Amino acid sequence: AVVRVPGTSRALALKTDCNGRYVYLDPRAGGRIAVAEAARNVACTGARPLGITNCLNFGNPRKPEVFFQFREAVAGMAEACTELGIPVTGGNVSFYNESPGRSVYPTPTIGMVGLIEDLDSVTRAPFDRSGLDVVLLGDNRGELGASEYLAWIHGKVVGRPPDCDLEGERRLIEALLEAIGAGLVASAHDCSEGGLLVALAECCMMDPDNAFGAEVDLTSWQSLPLRALFFGESQGRVITSVYDSERVLAIAERHGVPAAKIGRVAAAGGALTVRVGDGTWTVAVSELARAYHGAVATYMSRVATAAEESDTEAARV
To answer: Phi first, then psi: what are they for 313, rounded to 5°?
Structure first.
């Protein structure tokens, strides 16, 4: 969220973040990623990250495995805050979050605040103008461990969470803020849960009243397995639509951030088209919007239908 500071030309950017699955599988890596992702999200609005608070949610600390998760997650958070230069202003710890025999996922939730010096620099996430170049800041490494893909498609919470290069995250934030400050960036959205394809879809239809298609070519990464390229959750990536891709790429290079022009924003209400080598996939933005914005209603409808069928079967028996 971005909140205007009354009586000034400034605004505050606010973000809460944590991936409990990452922390469950590797507490220290998950703690680092929680801070880095929150900072990245704040920077995508045009804000410089200033500080964090936290709510550290864990099970019974008398259990060795739970205390280990707590200790390692806090250590990971400290590493990220130190590297990114972001102080911890406060927070709280909530223990004993469990039901008989099972603790909640360890969830060190980060609350990040950042400062936008000029309201004209506020940057939104969705594409909002056709014809702009789409530039990916960061690199696709095809890391599927601990991903939404594995959890939702295969029902597996397994693997190593993606690597979190904290120094690389710092350079990414600096490059992004310089490009936004120079008036070169129309939109910026980070890649996180769900991976690159999900982030691109969100850029297209996040604003249901002003949805734009996109034409994207990912052939440069065709050596990666498609599911890893599309749904891998490699950190340190931001999708931008920009007014001058050459200048943005030059800024990224100067900061040592991998970057590539991967396509263009297409017409409003069109389609998202993704090419990888000889393969092409196209889906209408309206279809993406129905799946995204109607997800809760669709799910609840399925639950209600299943309950009715169960009642009917019970009555028949």
So the answer is: -65, -40
